[in-house]
Amino acid sequence: MPLVRVRRQLLRHHGKGVLLSELKTAGSRRTLHLSEPVVQVLRAHQSRQDDERTSARVWRNPAGLVFTSTIGTPLDPEVFGKSVPRICKEAGLGHWSIHELRHSCASLLLAMGVPLEVVSDTLGHASIRVTMDVYGHLLAPPKMQAAEAMRRALWLEDLPDFDPLAAVDPVGTTDNAVTSDGVGRPGLDPGTLGLKVPCSSG
Fold first, then answer.
1. Which structural domain, as residue segments, surrounds residue 199?
2. 175: which of 54, 130, 157, 189 lies 20 to 30 Å off by Cα?
3. What is the domain count for the chain?
4. pLDDT digits (tens, 9 = 90+) for 143-152
5. Is the pTM of this model over 0.90?
6. Would you say 11 and 78 are in contact if contact means Cβ atoms under 8 Å apart?
7. Rounded Cα–Cα distance for residues 86 and 99 (Å)
8. Under 8 Å between Cβ of 162 and 187
């Protein structure tokens, strides 16, 4: 799967314009996996950019940026941020800011069961605690799934196909045989844990 390594960012520097700069925190430096539909969209964009470069009288893109102006120069982050709501409206999505899109992305990932630490890394948060503080209220479904998993594991009546005596040696001579007096819990007593310690009532 293709990867994107986030290592630098575009910032406006006083008197110097928009330049590539180092990221603020170590957590901001991250690697993202791209799905195939995203790769296809980026390739189509690259093809359009190649056409722009060929027809442009001036092209200035020494850093090889993927998204540029029509002459290859960097996009102003502030101007782009203000343009996002208009782009969303033209795409039929309604009014969305870039921060709202980012927040919705994280919310959808968590709702679909993506682990919190993966979402935190994708967002570039400084720590998983930051992600928890913002999106912790969305973690109820996974917590309920954990409780349900424990219920199924501990209450045998929910597992009708499980026979705790199926592994008992009919002769009763094996070291790890489970006696029929019900000592211990199937899967938890020493014999079924492979410790070679027989279970008995005495």
1. 163-202
2. 157
3. 3
4. 777 777 787 7
5. no
6. no
7. 14
8. no
